[in-house]
Amino acid sequence: MPVNFEGKAISWSIRDSAIELALRRQPCNEIGSTSLTELEIFADSLDELTARTHALIIYSEIPAGFCAGADLRELYERSQAMGKAAAASGVREFLERIHRVLNTIDAVPLTTIAAVHGVTFGGGLELALVCDLIIADKMARFCFPELRLGLVPGFGGIPRLKRDLGNGVIRDLLLTGRSFNATKAQNTGLVSQVVAEGEALRVARSTAAQLSKFDKQTSVAAKKFIKPIPYEELRQEIDIFCELFMQPAVEQGLRKFVESTEAQPYLP
Amino acid sequence: MQTMDQTLEEVLKLASTHFKVPREKLAADDDFFKTLGIDSLQALDLLTRLENHFRVELPDYELQGVSDFRTLASRIQARL
C-alpha cells in the first residue's frame, strides 16, 4: 500500500510524522465514485501509515472550502441511468463503502485533525466529524442541507453528532438545514479552535507537533476510551437513508438541485 | 445601538472592501449579486463576513430571496 499517493480527488504524504490527507477535487471536493475509490485506498493504507506516524490531518487544497458533501450530480445522473431498484441498491452499496472508510478513519490509532475552511456541508461535515479535533478557519461554514432533498445525512453524521454534541444543537442543524459559522460551531462544541483566514492547516500542524510529544500508546488508549464508534446507529442510518431514497421527493429534490440556476442554490 | 443607516453603510463598506468594488458604485437598493458580480458561494462568504463583523447569526433561510443591500442590512439590524 502506498505511503505517498497522488490521486484525482485526494493525495496524501507524511510530513513531520503526521499523515496529511489533502482533498483536491474541483469544484469543492464533492464525494463521488472517484473520491470514494481513492479514500478506500487510503483506508487500506492506514495500517502501514499509522506505524510510522502519530497524527492525521485532513484538509482541502480547494479555495471554495473543505468539502461540499456527496456528489449529487453524479448521484442524480446514475439514478436516472438505471432503474429505481438498481439505483437504490447502488446507493446502499455506496453508503456501506463510505461508512467502512469513515469508520476506519474514526477508529484509527492516531490523533486526527480536520483543518477546515469555507464550505463544510453534508458529507463534508460528516468527513470532518470522524476526526478527533476540528480546527476551523473563521470563514468556515457548517451545514446539513439533506432535508431539502428529502433525505437525512447518510455518511454517519447524525450518530457522530449524537456522540459528540447535545441533542438540541443536532436538531437545529438537521431540522432547519441552516448553516453555522465557525464561531457558532465552536460555541456548540463542534469545533475546537477558530483561527484566522488561511491559518487552519498551519495550526493543525502546530497541534500535531504538540501531540507528537505524548506517548503514542497512551494517546491511543485515551482515544479508544473516550471515542466509541456508534456502529448500531450507523447501520440504522443507512437503512433510514435507503428507505427515504425511494420517495419521489428525493428525485424531485435532486433534479431541482442539478438543474438549478438560482442565485442561491446552496440555501435551503 | 447603531441606527439602520449606520448598519447599511457598514454593509456597503464591507462589500466594497472585500469584493474590490468602489464604494461610490454601490447603492442601497442594488442587487448585490449583479453589482458585486458574485455567485452563491461568494454570497455565502459575504454572509459569513457580515456575521463575523456584526457578531450576529443570520440563518440562511432569512436571506432567501434577499438580493439588495438595504434588505440585507435590515435583517442584520433586527438582530443587533
How does this model look, in words?
The complex is a heterodimer of chains A (268) and B (80). Chain A is of the alpha/beta class and 268 residues long. The N and C termini of chain A lie far apart (41 Å). Chain A has 11 helices and 11 strands. Chain A has a single domain, classed as 2-enoyl-CoA Hydratase, Chain A, domain 1 (Alpha-Beta Complex). In chain A, 50% of the residues lie in helices and 17% in strands. Chain A has helices at 33-51, 72-81, 84-107, 123-129, 157-164, 167-176, 182-188, 200-211, 216-226, 231-245, 248-259, and strands spanning 5-6, 10-15, 18-23, 55-60, 65-67, 111-116, 119-121, 133-137, 141-143, 180-181, 193-195. In chain A, strands 1-2-3-4-6-8-11 form a 7-stranded mixed sheet, with helices on both faces. In chain A, strands 5-7-9-10 form a 4-stranded mixed sheet. In chain A, strand 2 (10-15) and strand 3 (18-23) form a beta hairpin. In chain A, 44% of the residues are buried. Chain B is mainly α and 80 residues long. Chain B has one domain (4-77): Orthogonal Bundle (Non-ribosomal Peptide Synthetase Peptidyl Carrier Protein, Chain A). Helices cover 56% and strands 0% of the residues of chain B. Chain B is built from 4 helices and no strands. At the A-B interface, loops of A face helix 3 of B.
